[in-house]
Prior knowledge:
The protein has a single domain, classed as Rossmann fold (3-Layer(aba) Sandwich). Helices cover about 55% and strands about 10% of the residues. It has 8 helices and 5 strands, in the order βαβααβααβααβα. The chain has helices at about 20-30, 45-55, 60-85, 95-105, 110-120, 135-145, 160-175, 190-205; strands at about 5-10, 35-40, 90-95, 130-135, 180-185. The protein has a 5-stranded parallel beta sheet with strand order 2-3-1-4-5, with helices on both faces. Helix 3 (about 60-85) runs parallel beside helix 5. Bound molecules: thymidine-5'-phosphate. The site of thymidine-5'-phosphate (TMP) has 13 residues, from helix 4.
Amino acid sequence: xxxxxxxxxxxxxxxxxxxxxxxxxxxxxxxxxxxxxxxxxxxxxxxxxxxxxxxxxxxxxxxxxxxxxxxxxxxxxxxxxxxxxxxxxxxxxxxxxxxxxxxxxxxxxxxxxxxxxxxxxxxxxxxxxxxxxxxxxxxxxxxxxxxxxxxxxxxxxxxxxxxxxxxxxxxxxxxxxxxxxxxxxxxxxxxxxxxxxxxxxxxxxxxxx
Length: 209
Ligand code: TMP
């Protein structure tokens, strides 16, 4: 059986990626694809416990980074790899690109440390397609601060998100074959239309023997 495709969604907090997850899931189902929707940090019972700590417990940046990758390792072993091997598609709300952007950029750990951890935890597994939801930071921050109680990352100040966004852009440039940048200042309908076309293309390619 053909492996499923691995799709991920990325963007700074407030960029609006999570709004589109139910739409993508529904589109894939309509196209006859079995899809597992999951998220990082999280996606397994242990990963969800680590998520609670990561979002709310003060900790050193290295601890934070290692816990992100600990949760990711568990997620890959328990959820992502088995689903892909069964021919299911995996739609993941954030993956290693978030560590690259947030810990590498935002927390200023640098790209190299993240690349070492990526090589250690998932040398052979990368998303087949990553949608980077991109929005001017002023708008993303406005959206964020009108929403709800903020977690440890969302409480960070402007400079943190400037660095995070720069690292996202850098990665999208370096790995342009799998990245698609979505202009998140468009209307939801415009974004959905774009996603729909791309999903149809992906499924058609995947179904071609
Ligand atoms: P979410 O709000 O999109 O679910 O993500 C939770 C937070 O975790 C978000 O602020 C980004 C952060 N994060 C990292 O800092 N590094 C990572 O590797 C991941 C997956 C998330």
